[in-house]
Design brief:
Strand content: 15-25%
CATH topology: Rossmann fold
Number of strands: 8
Strand order of the largest sheet: 1-2-4-3-5-6-7-8
CATH superfamily: Alpha/Beta hydrolase fold, catalytic domain
Order of helices and strands: EEEHHEHEHEHHHHHHEHEHH
Number of domains: 1
CATH architecture: 3-Layer(aba) Sandwich
CATH class: Alpha Beta
Helix content: 25-40%
Length: 277
Amino acid sequence: MPLRDWRFHTDSIGGIPAARWSRGNGNPVLLVHGIGPGTTGLANFAPLFDRLSAQWEVHLIDLIGFGRSGRKTAPPFFDVSIWLNQIAHVVDQFQARPAAIVGNSVGGALALKSAVRFPALRAVIAISAPAERYLIPAALQNFWSVPRSAEELALALTPMTAGQTPPAPDLVASRFGAFADPTYREYFAAMLPGTKQSQLDEAALSDAETASLATPTLLIHGREDRAVPAEETVLPLSRRLRRADVVLLGGCGHNVLWERTADSAALIEKTLSERLG
């Protein structure tokens, strides 16, 4: 298992156990995953582990409701507030050391919101982040639905890539395996009910947040992202942020870290090196 040599921690967020792993030395970098069927911190960020932990103290979390973290007992289960509190709990432990947050998809939006709360952060990197309000597209609507079979999950994952390439069977199996637990199936369905537009809107930054966010920001996005189209999200958002750089990667959909691993990792490393040393 890729996390076997990591240090495991259990945090408590409002009485709910929250899983966290750490590895490496140096200034801290927190990785925040997205919201998808069967997703975890490991599923989102595995391509970065060795490169980042060789230079920095990397912290990886499973958001409340996912992976090895606990679940809420009452709705809302799509709860930006509790996820931000979970992130804040980790950042507080950095004890004012120079630190950065890297977030993927909704985790990218959470990273940006957290930078408003912690202006002393040296950098925030948001990958494929739905941090601007837009009308939810079919690709994301389908991806945020409970799959009835592994084949249905594979169909939902296919538009996430630029070339609409069917996902590898082991990826589908690892994600669909979470739904063998009927309580997880029910929880995920309750987290993202109906059209899912209100949950997507909740992840977006408010006008007040964009106006006050002054942390140096890198926005990395796939040019062919069908779930979070760049023209409707990262590009208009970047014009409202004071210190944001934007990189659009061609031949890349929503799964930036897996489709353009070397390029996105190099961008992240460069930013972290400049900001954290």
